[in-house]
Amino acid sequence: MTSLNHSLHVAVPTAFDHAERLDTKRTIAHILQLQKQGIKSVLVCGSTGEQHSLTLTEKKQLLHALAQETSWAADFEVLFGLAGIVFHETLALAEAISKNPRIDGVVLGFPPYLCLTQKEAVLYAQGLIHTCEKPVILYNNPRRTGFDLSAECLLTLIADSRVIGLKEAGRKERVPQLKTKMAADFRFYAGGEADLAEKVALGFNGLSSMAGNLCPKEIQVIWQGLLKGDATISTSNEWQKMEQAAAGDPTNTISYLPWLKQQITIDGQPFGFCRQPLSLATIDRFGTGSIPPHLAHERQENQTNED
Prior knowledge:
The strands form two sheets. The chain has an eight-stranded parallel β-barrel, surrounded by four helices. Helices cover about 40% and strands about 15% of the residues. The protein is an alpha/beta fold. The protein has helices spanning about 25-35, 55-70, 85-100, 120-130, 140-145, 150-155, 175-180, 195-200, 215-225, 235-245, 255-265, 295-305; strands at about 10, 40-45, 75-80, 105-110, 135-140, 165-170, 185-190, 205-210, 265, 270. The chain has one domain: Aldolase class I (TIM Barrel), CATH 3.20.20. It has twelve helices and ten strands.
């Protein structure tokens, strides 16, 4: 299995229009802006949590749009998030990814809320790894999923050569010991910029960045500096900009994702909205207690079918 070339990727948000419909054009336009500023790898439909608001059809639309785009640089990598509560739908997504030449790898997350057993998690992951046929970065995020992948199960999963990395958002302290059991080229990805210098010192050698959406040039300088052991990088102007981009709303009135989207512009125009309940504190687009027009239409159709 061919590994991924770039150890830094930016986890990009998903654009939605005023009526909360998926906007593939603006999503890709933002990615192309990042490409122009030197970013060589992005994660689409992963890490922001928005993938869990997308239907399987919408995810396939996004995959299709990525494949149809012709402006990619030859060395640009696109990763796609692969996770879901309904397993047969997640398998269908993995199959669609396997047939998409534009997707270079996947970040495989565990489903939220279900709190899988270790055995269930292994079977879930193995099914998706086998189906997607792409390099896989496992994503362990206990705070979001209620599940913490054990070292034993990780070792079981990495026996498959398609598993080339782990995005560890749980116990960073376990990485040094895990590294002793891994191949030298196995990557441990930091999820976001929190405690980044400490994580690199512990052995993290990959970064899944959110701040890079706002400071793409700076995050590249910082990442290369950390990998080279530059002790001065944490006092640089680039570091200060990264911290501001990673911190979110300085007034603490809205959550990170709506704030992030407010900062992104495409040709001078806003990037797009979040799906509710995100951003309810800042804008009520449909009126208190109402739902988006496209969902209201679906509800009406469902009620008609039931009748």
